[in-house]
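ingest -> validate -> predict -> emit
validate: passed (alphabet ok, no gaps, 60 aa)
predict: started
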Amino acid sequence: MSEILKYKKGNIKQGSLPEESPSWDEFCEMLWEEIEAEAEVNQPGFKVVHKLLSDNRFDK
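emit:
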């Protein structure tokens, strides 16, 4: 995921995450496939991160 973040605006990390979700640093260590899989099973924070990373409005 850190590769994806290189092409996104820096303020994307200011998006609020649910209390039970991993931190942005933990998300950076994950693969995109892991984030997609966890978002599908509705794990806390994963849908938010998936939406932010796949939204073209946050591209540089």
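Helices lie at 2-5, 24-28, 32-40, 46-54.
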